[in-house]
Structures are given as structure tokens and as C-alpha cells.
Amino acid sequence: MIDAVDSDVELDPGPGRGRQGAARTCIVTREVKPPKKMIRFVLAPDGAVVPDLRARLPGRGAWISGTREAVELAMKRRLFRRAFRSERADAHPDTPDRIAEGLRTDLRQAIAMANKSGCVVTGFGKVEAQIGSGIGVAAVIHASDAAADGRRKIGQALRRKQGDSTYKVPIIDDLSESELDMALGRDHVIHAALVAGAGTTGCLARWRRLRAFDGVATVIADANPAQAGASASDPHDDETTDRPA
């Protein structure tokens, strides 16, 4: 359980002011973290507290660790009122769900951008061929409703490619077939892969952020069959998992 503190909290000065990328203090835990691991909140004109996922909305902002648990605790303990020094500063009850949906939208958009940059291949055969190529893949994408057989065969292709290597490939399976269709502008996308390129790093960062919010570790495929589908220790970890396998 996260414990909150009762001391006053200082808000950030707003976008375009202060030191860009500076670490922020969570109003729930008082932990100091980089912005990429947190969610910013601002006051709307009507006094309601709204999430600012891209940290671009005007006005001073309060920051919370980027997990559903932290956001729900801030709402339960009415910490926004203290942070913004306003008795009207409350978030809508469905704010955690709105954040999760916003993060899913960000991931769809990131996949779409990666596709426009030529960093996405689609279709089982093309994904399998890309895995076996000299370039390899930076991540595998499965529709959340993909059949287990297709997942298994692609996992086998990864293991054939990697041999005894311990290099781990991210497995993105958070979006449904219809969501992938929307992101990639085509029908019936079940399996896809990211290759290294301009859009890959941002795509993986948004995936990690979505996973971290709901407390789900980032799933990876390992060359060792006994470890296939293992989980990374930190969903926010930005180590070099976006290189080609």
C-alpha cells in the first residue's frame, strides 16, 4: 500500500517554464521521479482536475507516479485539493479509466507513426521472415485476441533466430485486432513486428507507460523456452530493448 504524506506540495510552473525534463515529486508518495514515469494533472476552468498525459496543458500542474494505484489513492485521499489548494479540486470518478484509454490511444498513434516511418511489417509470413532476416525485429506485436497457435509459432521463430542468446524481444499484445487495424490502416492485422527505426523508440516508450499504469510488467520473449513470456522487472525500464534482435 502506498502511503501519502500531509506536508504541502509545490506545483510545477507549467509547460515552457522551469527546467525542461526536471524530476518531479509525486503528491502521493513524495518520491522524486523523471516525468516519463509520472502523470501530470491540471485544473480545468470549472475547477475539475484533469490528466495531462503529454504534459502540455497550460497552468501549474501536480504530478503523480504513473500507476493506477497512485491515482486512485490521490483521489481517495483528496490530495488534489491539498496540492491545488482548492476545495473544488477533485477528479472525476472514472479518471483512472480515462487515463488508461488515453494511454491506449497514445500507443495506437505511436504504432501508426512507426508504420508511416517504415518500421512496421504485418502478416504472419512477413513477421516470420523479418525475424529470420539479418536485421531481425525490435518488437513483436500480437493482437490481444490472436490465437495461441500463431503466437507459439512466432515464439519458435524467435528462438530459432536467437539460439542460446539471452537477448529479449518485447511482445506488445495490448491492442485488439480492430485497434491494430485502426492504427495500421488495414484489415485483419493479427501479427506484426517493429523493426529498428525512427518510430520504434517512441512506440516502445508508450507501450511501457501503458503497461506500468496498470501494474503489468513488460512481456518479453526469450531465447530460452523455459523463460519465454517472462516479465521485465520494471515496466518503465528504457534499456536497449528497442534494438534489432
TrEMBL record:
Residue ranges, compositional bias (Acidic residues): 1-11, 236-245
Protein name as it appears in the record: DNA-binding protein
Alphabetized InterPro entries for the sequence: Ribosomal_eL30-like_sf, YlxR, YlxR-like_sf, YlxR_dom
Start and end residues of each stretch annotated as Disordered: 1-22, 225-245
Keyword set, alphabetical order: DNA-binding
Ranges of residues in domain YlxR: 24-89
GO molecular function terms listed in the Swiss-Prot or TrEMBL record: DNA binding
NCBIfam families: PRK09190.1 (NF006622)
Organism: Methylobacterium haplocladii
Keyword DNA-binding: yes
